[in-house]
Amino acid sequence: KLSRFRSHSRIVQNFVLVWLDPNIDGKLNDEHREIVNQVRSIVSNVKIYSDVDKCANFLDKIKNEKVFMIVSGALGQHAL
């Protein structure tokens, strides 16, 4: 699905995509890696976290960038 967007998109600057997913735990499988590569063709700054606290610490430090977030499952309620 993302390949359709790639042909019509530009790289988004001054944005960070933060992906919070406890199942990644520092290891990307082939599917995750492909998704990250496709997303990076649109948003060059992608951060991946499996720990809510580390993710929150990163978000607290952001000053002049807008954030896109992908939050997996039940973490959505806890993260927000």
Q: Would you kindly provide a written description of the structure presented here, covering whatever features stand out?
A:
- With 80 residues, this protein is an alpha/beta fold.
- Helix 2 links the parallel strand 1 and strand 2.
- The radius of gyration is 13 Å and the shape is flat.
- The model has no long low-confidence stretch (mean pLDDT 79).
- The chain has one domain (2-75).
- The chain has 4 helices and 3 strands.
- A 3-stranded parallel beta sheet has the order 2-1-3, with helices on both faces.
- 39% of the residues lie in helices and 20% in strands.
The total beta strand count reads 3
Query: How helix-rich are the residues, as a percent range?
Result: 25-40%
> What class would the helix/strand composition place it in?
alpha/beta
Q: Summarize model confidence as the mean pLDDT.
A: 79
The number of domains is 1
Largest sheet descriptor: 3 strands, parallel
Large-scale geometry: flat
* SSE pattern: HEHEHEH
Give the oligomeric state. single chain
Poorly predicted sequence stretches spanning 5 or more consecutive residues:
none
Q: Tally the helices.
A: 4
Across the major sheet, the strand order is 2-1-3
How large is the radius of gyration? 13 Å
Distance between the termini: 27 Å
Classify the beta-strand content into a percent band.
15-25%
Give a topology summary.
Blueprint: H1 2-6, E1 15-20, H2 30-40, E2 46-49, H3 52-61, E3 66-71, H4 75-79
Please tag this protein with its features.
80 residues; alpha/beta; 3 strands
